[in-house]
Design goal:
The structure is a single chain. Helices cover about 10% and strands about 40% of the residues. It is mainly β. It is elongated. It has 2 domains: about 90 residues, no CATH class; about 120 residues, Jelly Rolls.
């Protein structure tokens, strides 16, 4: 069938219409009309009779060979990019991965946890950590201006870490100063405790942060010295922190 510019003809079945160039097609019902340059068949438009043309769509019936090559190249690139992602997001191993650095021939290594984006961590000692507190109201000796206390030995297979030193003392007069010492097995901590005045008596109460390490079998001791007074009532002291169970998680020897 030969068509001229502005010719119209009715199409009953769009599937039977063969178009060899990109065409603008309107939604049915429609008439077919060639564009102004019929000899080039630049476009075929379809429009509903006696109504304004609806929104046009560009439907390319065929793609030039060059365009097909570009499309094939783009799809191939996407496939190559997707391959490593699939491998990275693959199934996790069924068992934990263990990295071993042998003591006989260790590889120098350093683990850095940046402050800008830190990773969540936990102490390797946590599985063997046991809360510890030892209260003592029975001084081994308490006369004049000196009071001494002895705490139980650190159990075998454990390390003791002291984090707080606490006490409560009364005095018959102004002690001028109250000095507290905790020591044992090479560990030592000393500080001056505060003093308060209430009526004719003087008192000292404290909870001092500390960090002391004691090996298994070591005895921790405390002594309290006052400048010029004597003790009044029952003195109370306590050491608190935690024990490390070295049978659960091996403990490195404490360096002195």
């Amino acid at each position: 069938m030969h068509l001229h510019a502005e010719d119209k003809f009715e199409v009953s079945d769009l599937n039977q219409l063969t178009v060899r160039t990109p065409c603008r097609i309107l939604r049915s019902p429609f008439w077919c009309r060639l564009g102004p340059r019929a000899e080039a068949c630049t476009a075929i438009t379809f429009e509903a009779p006696n109504s304004r043309p609806q929104e046009e769509e560009i439907i390319p019936k065929t793609l030039p060979f060059a365009h097909c090559g570009v499309l094939l190249l783009a799809l191939t690139s996407l496939a190559l990019l997707g391959a490593p992602i699939d491998r990275a997001l693959g199934d996790k191993p069924s068992t934990p991965v263990t990295v071993v650095n042998p003591d006989t021939s260790p590889i120098p290594s350093q683990v850095v946890n940046p402050a800008a984006s830190p990773a969540l961590t936990s102490s390797v000692d946590d599985p063997g950590r046991v809360a510890y507190q030892s209260f003592n109201d029975q001084p081994s000796s308490c006369s004049g201006n000196l009071c001494q206390f002895v705490f139980p030995n650190v159990p075998d297979g454990h390390h003791l870490v002291i984090q707080h030193i606490s006490g409560n003392f009364g005095f018959t007069g102004d002690p001028l100063l109250v000095m507290v010492d905790v020591f044992g097995g090479g560990a030592f901590s000393s500080f001056l405790a505060p003093v308060a005045h209430a009526g004719p008596a003087f008192f000292s109460a404290f909870d001092q942060p500390a960090l002391l390490y004691f090996d298994a079998g070591v005895t921790a001791s405390m002594q309290v010295f006052v400048g010029s007074s004597s003790f009044l009532g029952v003195p109370l002291v306590e050491l608190s922190g935690y024990l490390l169970d070295c049978t659960v998680s091996p403990c490195a020897p404490i360096a002195h």
